[in-house]
């Protein structure tokens, strides 16, 4: 008796499963098609991204290897295009090459390129912070206090590994302006940091004991 009931239950369950597949055949096929398309798209996009990275890498290498004084304008134009690609590796490198070789003189243009790197390019958090520091460093000689602080505040108000560099830049900025009290305050902040860069920490200690001691 129990065996018969078990067989009936099994047959009933199998019939329900069979009916489910029959009744939902179109939905199941559509679902499988969608999943297949998504998988193909995912891997195709990954391959496209890999090819794009290789292309950008080759382009950057070609541009920088062919650079000379006679083609500065073209080199700058080509590297600006790479910055606008918003590639996490070669867009920053393109901007650094422009700055190091003084391919563009207009600070406004350089700052706009920095903003593309900082605000629009997908970067590791500390790489982004490094570029914020580089932007501040680039502008330090011609900036006023408020402008420089506006650039560096994301670092100064964070726990970034670049925080001590930002504080040091502000301290030296005020020192160069002969604002010794403000300079001293920023140097002292470096001394109170738990994760201060050791070279920066040593420089701060030297400056305080040598030039800002009372």
List keywords for this structure.
214 residues
Describe the overall structure.
It is built from 10 helices and no strands. The chain has 214 residues and is mainly α. α4 runs antiparallel to α5, α6 (125-139) packs antiparallel against α7 (145-156) and α7 runs antiparallel to α8 (163-176). The longest helix is centred in the N-terminal third of the chain and has 41 residues, at 25-65. It is flat and about 95 Å long.
Give the helix proportion (percent range).
over 70%
Low-confidence stretches: none
Sheet of most strands: none
**Number of E-state strands:** 0
Distance linking N and C termini = 103 Å
Q: Structural class of the secondary elements?
A: mainly alpha
3D shape: flat
Averaged pLDDT, please?
86
User: N-to-C SSE series?
Assistant: HHHHHHHHHH
Radius of gyration, CA atoms, in whole angstroms: 30 Å
Strand content: under 5%
With helices defined by DSSP (H or I, 4 residues minimum), what is the helix count? Answer: 10
Quick take:
The chain is mainly α. The protein is built from 10 helices and no strands.
Lay out the secondary structure:
Layout: H1 2-23, H2 25-65, H3 72-83, H4 90-100, H5 107-120, H6 125-139, H7 145-156, H8 163-176, H9 180-191, H10 198-210
Helix pairs in contact: 2-3, 3-4, 4-5, 5-6, 6-7, 7-8, 8-9, 9-10
């Amino acid at each position: 008796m129990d065996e018969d009931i078990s067989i009936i239950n099994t047959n009933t369950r199998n019939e329900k499963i069979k009916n489910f597949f029959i009744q939902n055949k179109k939905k199941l096929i559509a679902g499988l098609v969608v999943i297949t398309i998504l998988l193909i798209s995912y891997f195709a996009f990954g391959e496209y991204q890999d090819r794009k990275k290789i292309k950008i890498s080759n382009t950057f290498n070609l541009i920088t290897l062919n650079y000379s004084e006679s083609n500065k304008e073209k080199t700058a134009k080509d590297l600006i295009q790479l910055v606008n690609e918003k590639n996490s590796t070669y867009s920053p490198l393109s901007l650094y090459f422009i700055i190091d070789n003084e391919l563009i003189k207009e600070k406004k243009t350089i700052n706009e390129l920095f903003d593309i790197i900082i605000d629009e390019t997908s970067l590791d958090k500390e790489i982004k912070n490094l570029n914020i520091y580089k932007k501040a460093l680039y502008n330090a000689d011609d900036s006023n206090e408020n402008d420089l602080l506006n650039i560096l505040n994301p670092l100064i108000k964070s726990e970034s590994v670049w925080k001590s560099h930002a504080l040091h830049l502000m301290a030296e900025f005020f020192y160069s302006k002969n604002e010794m009290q403000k300079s001293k305050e920023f140097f002292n902040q470096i001394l109170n940091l738990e994760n201060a860069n050791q070279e920066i920490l040593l420089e701060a200690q030297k400056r305080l004991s040598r030039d800002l001691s009372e």
